[in-house]
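Throughout our pipeline, every protein is held as a single compact record rather than as scattered files. The record that follows is passed on verbatim for readers who wish to inspect the format:
___
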Amino acid sequence: MQNSKTAKYLFIGGGNMAKAMIKGMQNNLSLYISVIERNIDMHHELINMQCKAFTNIQQCSINEFDCIILAVKPQDSIKILQELNLILSNKNTLIVSIMAGINTKFIKKYINNPCVRAMPNTPILIAKGITALFSENLNNEYKELIENIFKNSSKLHYLSNETDMHAVTALSGSGPAYTFYMLNYLTKVGEELGLKQELSKDLSAYTFLGASEMAIQSKLSLEQLQQNVMSKGGTTQAAINSFDNDKLFDALQNGVKKAYARSIELEKLFE
């Protein structure tokens, strides 16, 4: 493996998530980044991002890369893994997969290389993501390769059990959609109360943003932060009582558990 000053990365797939990761990596001018992307329009966009871009695996010297990031859709995984199985002879190359629903055991059926499974979420697009990682027995060199990918765009958490990826998927992977869902309805409520749409959206979104930052920075529990906003008999108490009476927690819990169960079902398609 080369040292981190000359580390070579190859992305297979150049979609939005890959581009967000590449953008974060480009702050480190010492990294060499290449991408394989078959879509011609996306191919040109990647070239404009100062990446070395290819349209297929055969065009690049696959065994020269220190790290290969699999960023294709799950339905394309078998074809890509079969291609790599035929031409990847460098067993020191680290494989990082962000393919949803594909576990490391499945990948190792085709490639017996060090392998990391990663679950970033879409706020990585604005360098505010969170990424869960799983791998067995990574040395410090491989950890440095991984951190080069994510450290400028995402907070990292290493998992001790790969099965926890289902909970991660249900919570943070799908979580941005839950947030947008709630923000959309809060915005609509504001409009019903007479506010203009733009103002209602800003009030809702910036409230989520500020409250989330407080939750991250504060040493207080979430329950205590909630209590600090509430006063007995006040407006916030009235709303919280209504949420409790309408069993909002039950609805949220049921939804997240449905996502969790669906994640398990999808993974079974690739066993």
User: Anything to note?
Assistant: Residues 197-217 form the longest helix (21 residues). The chain is about 50% helix and 15% strand.
